[in-house]
Prior knowledge:
Elements: E1 2-9, H1 11-15, H2 19-28, E2 32-39, H3 43-49, H4 59-66, E3 71-79, H5 81-89, H6 102-106, H7 111-117, E4 125-127, H8 131-141, H9 153-157
Antiparallel strand pairs: 1-3, 1-4, 2-3
The chain binds adenosine monophosphate.
Adenosine monophosphate (AMP) binds next to loops.
Amino acid sequence: MLERTLVLVKPDGVQRSLTGEIISRFEKAGLKIVGMKMAWADRKFAEEHYSAHKGKAFYKSLVGFLTEGPVVAMVLEGLHAVDVVRKLTGATEPRTAAPGTIRGDYAHHSYEYTDKKGIPIKNLIHASGDRKDAEKEIKLWFTLKEMHSYKSVHDVHVL
Ligand code: AMP
């Protein structure tokens, strides 16, 4: 049940100075940060990260969006961390993301608008979709040396 998952504060989140707010949401839910860094993905790296979407209509613009500025990448650990992080993040489209979620509270972009304009949807965060994706994505973004096991208050109140 104790899982690790990958979260990226995407370039729009970094550029809007929402990094701290976003990290804080996850910390307050009791998730432990076990790895974190700022990184600027190049095209090849972004293509690898989004390889599951290759061939889809939005793939090219998605890759372009991820490479347009630095991201803050982190590995979060906690019980059912993959699902819990997806829940806190909210639905992919900010327009329909529930209030109380990060995307619902801090963004409002819609597919209707972005499809018409041919631009990527600005939804602040990437969060691994399932445990298999999390394992693959953590390996892509972090080395073992960049992740840390340590005691935190969560070990008392969560585990
Ligand atoms: P996912 O791996 O499912 O989180 O999707 C990765 C990213 O692809 C999302 O965060 C969006 O930025 C983008 N995306 C997913 N579905 C669509 C779509 N239907 N139209 C445009 N962008 C999308």
